[in-house]
Design a protein that fits this description.
Elements lengths: L16 H9 L9 H5 L19 E5 L8 H14 L4 E6 L4 H5 L11 H6 L5 H4 L1 E2 L5 E4 L8 H5 L8 H7 L7 E6 L5 H9 L2 E7 L2 H20 L5 E8 L6 H14 L13 H8 L3 H4 L4 H24 L3
Parallel strand pairs: 1-5, 1-6, 2-4, 2-5, 6-7
Antiparallel strand pairs: 3-4
Helix pairs in contact: 1-10, 1-11, 3-14, 8-9
């Protein structure tokens, strides 16, 4: 992935900088549910993508939100598993020292010999050296544990410290169709590494007022990385999570999100369900733990939606 510096980029938001200001000024109860919002629940069906003749190169997506508890790791696991169900070869990269992504796939954090931490701090180690297989032959994991918490300090004095993860992913990008990076809930150097390595950012956003206000800070960070480190970085989409259509508050938050981000908000919405905490205990994606559940179908639909967007973009680029 070529990286460079480019300035005066257009805003990542359809409404420009004013959209960010509107999010910062948002107040509870200030955005009544709109017809456009209601039409997003339930989302329209997206077709299954055609099978691939060969794998790679991968599109790299950073799953990022500096606020914790918004469904970031849950979305990484289940979107990755859904891509694999659709015949895509997927690499999940755990970039959170809490190791929630690894635990969520049944990996014991204390039994790991090599992790992403080794890849970041030892240039002789690559992602291929730390990969673990999962229950799906098309889904691989680059695990992490608490050792990763020291990586930010260790990388501070490194030359090109923001590019370390990008260099590691470049070595395996041709072997996969999708790489999903589960970022830690902060905007530190590890997250900057993820944003520098990524083609796009997927932002899970809890349908809650304070989560909505925080997304403005994240977009600011994405814009800075785009201007200074990764000029091709874009927002893949905003994923509304923990949605409860019975509450006015959830509907209001989703309405304001759609007003600010427009088509960047995925049509698929992830509703609250007790199944997601159960899958963490089981150490398996919801697509295999509860394959017929509404949560499993929502992530399958999200995978189809993302792939349909890529197909449409590829068609536009080729002039079709």
């Amino acid at each position: 992935m070529a990286r460079g510096v480019r300035h005066e980029q257009p805003s990542l938001l359809p409404g420009g900088d004013e959209a960010l200001l509107d999010l910062r000024r948002a107040k509870p109860g200030s955005a009544p549910p709109t017809r456009a919002t209601r039409e997003r629940i339930p989302a329209p069906a997206f077709p299954d993508p055609p099978p691939l003749q060969e794998h790679g190169p991968a599109r790299v997506i950073a799953v990022c939100n500096q606020k914790g508890g918004v469904g970031k790791t849950t979305s990484t696991i289940n979107l990755g598993a859904s891509f694999a169900e659709l015949g895509r070869k997927v690499l999940l990269v755990d970039l959170d020292p809490q190791g929630a992504l690894s635990v969520g796939l049944g990996v014991s954090a204390h039994d790991l010999d090599l992790t992403v931490n080794d890849v970041l701090l030892d240039r002789s180690k690559g992602l291929a050296d730390v990969l673990l297989k999962t229950e799906s032959p098309l889904l691989h994991l680059a695990p992490a544990n608490i050792e990763l918490s020291g990586a930010e300090i260790a990388l501070v004095n490194e030359v090109g410290r923001e590019q370390v993860l990008a260099d590691a992913i470049d070595d395996v990008v041709d072997d996969y169709d999708v790489v999903l990076i589960d970022c830690q809930p902060s905007l530190g150097l590890l997250t900057v590494n993820a944003l520098t390595a990524a083609d796009s950012v997927l932002i899970p956003l809890e349908c809650e007022y304070f989560a909505l206000r925080g997304v403005a800070l994240l977009v600011d960070t994405i814009t800075k990385v785009r201007n200074r480190l990764n000029p091709d970085l874009e927002i893949e989409g905003i994923l509304a999570t923990m949605y409860d259509g019975r509450t006015t508050h959830s509907r209001e938050v989703l309405a304001r999100l759609v007003e600010a981000f427009g088509d960047k908000v995925f049509q698929t919405v992830i509703a609250r369900t007790v199944r997601f905490p159960e899958t963490t205990v089981a150490g398996a994606p919801i697509t295999s733990y509860a394959p017929s559940s509404t949560g499993a179908e929502a992530y399958r639909q999200l995978a189809r939606e993302v792939l349909s967007h890529w197909a449409a973009a590829a068609g536009d680029a080729s002039g079709r």
